[in-house]
TrEMBL record:
It comes from the Eukaryota. GO terms for molecular function: RNA binding. This is RRM domain-containing protein. mRNA splicing factor that regulates the formation of epithelial cell-specific isoforms. Specifically regulates the expression of FGFR2-IIIb, an epithelial cell-specific isoform of fgfr2. Acts by directly binding specific sequences in mRNAs. Binds the GU-rich sequence motifs in the ISE/ISS-3, a cis-element regulatory region present in the mRNA of fgfr2. GO terms for biological process: cranial skeletal system development; mRNA processing; RNA splicing. The keyword Manganese does not apply. Signal peptide: none annotated. GO terms for cellular component: nucleus. Residues 227-299, 328-403, 451-526 form the RRM domain. Keywords: mRNA processing, mRNA splicing, Nucleus, Repeat, RNA-binding. Its main location: nucleus. It comes from Esox lucius. PANTHER family: HETEROGENEOUS NUCLEAR RIBONUCLEOPROTEIN-RELATED. Belongs to the ESRP family.
Amino acid sequence: MASHSDTLVVFFGATAGANGAKLGSDEREIILLVWQIVDLHEKKVGKLQRRLVKPDTLELTDQSKEDTGLSVDELCKAEPLDKVLQQFQQSVSAEVKALGRSSYRLCVDGPLIIRQALHPEASKKNLVLPECFYSFVDVRKEFHKCCPNAGPVQDLTLPAMLEYVCIPELPLSEQVTGVKEVRSMVQLSLHILADPYNHTFSCFEAVKVKFESGACSKTEPVDSETVIRARGLPWQSSDQDIARFFKGLNIAKGGVALCLNAQGRRNGEALVRFINQEHRDLALERHKHHMGSRYVEVYKATGEEFLKIAGGTSNEVAQFLSKENQVIIRMRGLPFTASPQDVLTFLGPESPVTDATEGLLFVKYPDGRPTGDAFVLFSCEEYAQNALKKHKQILGKRYIELFRSTAAEVQQVLNRYMSTPLISTLPTTSMLPVPVLATPPFLATASTRDCVRLRGLPYTAAIEDILEFMGEHTIDIKPHGVHMVLNQQGRPSGDAFIQMKSADRAFMVAQKCHKKMMKDRYVEVFQCSTEEMSFVLMGGTLNRSGLSPPPCKLPCLSPPAYAAFPSPALLSEAALYQSPLLSASRTPQPTHSPHPAPTLAYYPPQHHPAQLYMNMNMNYTAYYPSPPVSPSTVGYFAAPPGSVASALAAQQPHAGSPMMPQHGALVRMQGLPYNAGVKDILGFFQGYQYAPEDYSSMVQMSQDQARSLIQPKEWLCL
């Protein structure tokens, strides 16, 4: 259509529900269309056309009956929307041709009938609208250009504009709904075309035919007044589906960002960015409109939220998404050994990938390990549809899931995996400073990656099987360095940790033994740190999303303050060992010793009774799991030997602070059988060191108390 039209088609519509300022906000169907042609050169008008439209649901609200004066009986005799639109196009084309004109453009009183009623309804009914409905002029904005003193555009109404330019009201014979509005717009248009205004209609508004995908940079400014959050979307909906839901409104390029949950799957929410605030405000009017059988909630959002989801900084992703007008498909569940050629072969010649291997993007962890996800570009919808037909077909020994995806989802998935460390740390807290109990030399919590993790072990695997699996690398294992992880039921979890003599040895094992077969299963071998191993052995879970720390449901019953005292070099490993209680280090209380050394924690005398329960509400729980060493060879209680404790007490600078004697560590148990007795408990701890005088309290402990205590994850050790 020509950019400068010589004919206007003044257009009006009404729905079976809300009209006026709320037109289209309730999803009701169009029931009335009225139009009339205006020749801009000759200042002449054509014949007024009025058509009733039969809706699929023959119901009218009371307000619609009052506004339009129509009844259900009248609508039953009308034609459906597609037929009426056909009549509109034929009638207008014939009149324009009779006038000797070549082009025309719609003129409406506000954008609602086009953007909020006609396009959404046509989209739901899969109707193809004529080209003229993708461009129009708003008589309010044109009038505001002529008469800027008449008031803001959003406050202008037809009666107010007519009154401002002194145009009298129409006679009663023309007060029929639709006829009155079209006649008024025609009069107003002719008035501003004449002297003294001599106005030229030039503010053409466009409706985007198709949503444009694209990448978004985190440095790109995004106006918060243009962003909304859509909630309740079907999980399989794509960016094109969301753009269709907002049909009639112009979404910015790459302006649909599907939100993912912690597992990387869509959570039914999306952030949508529009070209301006006007379109955003119209989108908010679609709150609780339906996408299929689901209603979608629409709320305001911020530019920061949009950039957090859709923004990216990776050059690899930017290059991948630089190819415009491509259909993106996400593949999930790929074998870790799958190559680009394997993926191309799987998709087949009927689904050619754009630029072959250049159109593939494999998602990887920061250390380069594959995640099993990949994104694929196709140049057209047909190729993408052919690819989607291979959903849940087999590649290697795995079935592959295929979904439609978006540029924002590519950014989000890559951001999630590439920014996730191998193990995440707990957030820091502003609680009272509590030092971590000292850790033995053989289980230092440094970040040195001198351990390996074995994942996918057969459940029947024993320590001897692991040693055989390690082969020649067995000589590089530290003494008591094999730790098999058990689940809460005491059964093998399929994981094990091995402490190597150095980080280089651990790296070599991970390279040589990764995906090596043990019995009938391949075992994954990853290099990790002692800190990561300790967290898992204390009950945490290390997975793709990082570390899930042990559950923190119970308040800490330990005293609120700990004192630290110097520990000379003569202390044995048995005296030094204590499992870390918290994953985030806390600064110990300063000592006055001129020779700083590893510290032990003990309970000091309480100077005020209230201090005993000061941190009942602290947001963590102390865990006391079995140690990852052989209990028969290495001591694992925190109390130093009596002679060492006495020597340390003598070194205290202040005699007024005596050290409370400590008789080992207290272990609290949860889930005891109701008929469990002392002998059962002692049998449970068979092979561990305990003082005979320290188990007498077990008899006095009620079953309710025992069930309220902590049950840590256990492990077997070499």
